[in-house]
Amino acid sequence: MNEPGEDSWNERLRGLLLGLALGDSYERARGSFRRRGVIDVGVATQLAAFTADGLVRALASSGDQLAPGQVAPALWNALTRWGAQQEVIPTTDAQGAPVANGWLSEVPALSERRGSAPATVSAVRGGRPGTLEQPGSSSGGTQVVTRLLPTAAVRHLLPYEGIYSEADAEFASYAVLTHGEGSAIHSAVATASLASSCLAGMDVREAVGASPFNEMGSLFSAARDIAGGQPRDPSALRQWMRDDATSAMTGGIYTAISFPEPDDVQDALDFAYRLPGGRGSATVAAALIGAVHGVHALPVEAVSRLELSWVLDQLALDLAQHVRGLRAVSERYPILN
After folding, report:
1. How many CB atoms lie within 10 A of CB 265?
2. Does the pTM of the predicted model rise above 0.85?
3. Is 204 exposed, middle or buried (0-12, 13-18, 19+ CB in 10 A)?
4. What is the pLDDT of residues 154-177, one digit of tens each?
5. Which residue among 2, 6, 245, 323 sits deepest, i.e. has the most Cβ atoms within 10 Å of its Cβ?
6. For residues 180 and 130, is the Cβ–Cβ distance under 8 A?
7. Cβ(316)–Cβ(14) under 8 Å?
8. CA atoms within 13 A on the CB side of 72
């Protein structure tokens, strides 16, 4: 693995966020972008944007030094702000102050309903963040995997020793805010870890080989090995594809390995969207490909029309600055109490 320089790391993080949005939009468009006009994003992109915003706030509020327990409250705050903008919870608090604040509250596309996120809506309506002892729901849906992908940017800031390490419990605490099914939580944490390795300079195949995960390691390896012997075969993963978080992870990894070149993005989107039972696979695959090759591998024609492209690019750059300890424009991100 070649450690990327600062500019390269920034490009990869931009690629991860914009790739995620591209894959999500492709699924929302049912496998075919319109020829002209703005390409709408889906709810997965909205939640990922608020996750990135929450990470910046956590870093800004802690002096750019993270410790276990600091990020989950910031991500819960971000989810409640999303809920208020969506008007699924009251838009003002008990004192009459707006729940939604910061610059994302001024982005119209983040206030519009763009698909279903039942576990997240249920959690924010309930007003209680889930914990490892009492998760936010029993859901195993795909949103938990895509929502956690931006946390790949901060994984290296915490120690990492394996599936039951302190770091993995920390990242699992981000997932259980809204979801609770065991394999979905493992899938979300494992996918974020894989994306973190890609940001650090590995390709997806290398990242799978380096993964220490016990719970998801066999599925990682299966996706890699099948891609090596049966690449680009929609039936190859049939036994694992069930339209849940684990299938989004497995389908995304298989697709990213099957289409390893930077000019393969459109073919990868087409393939992942058509995987039977693979909802979320295109979103995961495009995010991983963007993390490996950087933002410039993504098709300019589509990204230039992507509804939140500037917002996501700015979030990526601000997050990158805080991760590097360079500090972003602080008034964009109110300090958390």
Report:
1. 24
2. yes
3. buried
4. 988 875 544 445 667 888 999 999
5. 245
6. yes
7. yes
8. 22
Long-range contacts at 257-264 (CB < 8 A, ≥ 24 apart): 257/204, 257/205, 257/208, 257/223, 257/224, 257/227, 257/228, 257/231, 258/227, 258/231, 258/232, 259/232, 259/285, 259/289, 260/203, 260/204, 260/205, 262/289, 262/293, 262/296, 262/297, 263/297, 264/289
Distance between CA atoms of residues 162 and 184, nearest Å: 17
Type of residue numbered 116: S
Give 115 or 240, the one with higher predicted confidence. 115
Task: Give the three-class secondary structure for 236.
Answer: coil
Backbone angles phi, psi at 39, to 5 degrees: -95, 115
- Which residues 6+ apart lie within 8 Å of 294 measured at CB? 8, 11, 12, 14, 15
Task: Provide the 3-class DSSP secondary structure of residue 92.
Answer: strand
Domains assigned to the chain? 6-332 (1.10.4080.10)
Taking a C-beta distance cutoff of 8 angstroms, is the pair 193, 153 a contact? no
Question: How far from chain centre, in Å, is Cα 283?
Answer: 9
Tokens 């600091």, located at residue: 70
- Using CA of residue 224, residue 221, residue 1, residue 13, what is the dihedral sign? positive
Look at residue 165 in the predicted model and tell me its pLDDT: 57
Task: Say how many CA atoms lie within 13 Å of 49 toward its Cβ.
Answer: 28
| 336 has a pLDDT exceeding 90 | no
Reference 81, options 118, 117, 46; nearest CA is 46
